């Protein structure tokens, strides 16, 4: 039997949200500052994405990254409080889910923090992000999420990218039970058939291009240009995911 392979696109603005909606993405991870690994977006941006998804009739579409800073995933008490507040704010603004994660000083998944995040999310879905890949035991981190109320985990299998983590991703998918395994980390269009064959539940990519509009930044404004979501890459990813699953289904029936 064939199945769907949802494609999640990391987007940083309203335009990216519309591109993902228009070209068949299953959902977005809404964030800012992807160059830092992604940070919490503004509530105004969350509200804009939620409104766009509602207008398009897309359900379970807006998933908000909640990460207060770059530089790793070990957080102090103030940062954990900020994360919990931002989770509640995102959910109150209509987000369908949040994307979170934290590690202990020892480099293990911070299960107490994850429980706190799940509580703060209420009815919103919870995805644990690639903090698991930065842990000392990625497979153990994924296994530890069982029973915590987490919907899915975004992981490269503990490798620098999904190509390097393919064997681990296959093992995670086979042992995950109800926890969804979403492959993410350096995903290229050509990787999607192998990820589908490994049995993951979804794929995640940023589909980023570079825009130079907006004028020069000038002194104090940072670099010229900014990231934008490339519609052609979104289309290609969705097509590749559909073709990979259709091909697997045909092979199974042969």
TrEMBL record:
Gene3D superfamilies for the chain: Copper homeostasis (CutC) domain (3.20.20.380)
Which top-level group of life is the source organism from? Bacteria
- Record-linked Pfam families: CutC
What keywords does the record list, in alphabetical order? Cytoplasm
This protein's name: PF03932 family protein CutC
- Transmembrane stretches in the record are none
Q: Does the keyword GTP-binding apply?
A: no
Naturally occurring in which organism (per UniProt): Agromyces terreus
Name where it's found.
Answer: Cytoplasm
Annotated GO molecular function terms are: copper ion binding
Family classification:
Belongs to the CutC family.
Cellular component GO terms, alphabetically?
cytoplasm
Alphabetized SUPFAM superfamilies for the sequence = CutC-like
**Record keywords: Transport included?**
no
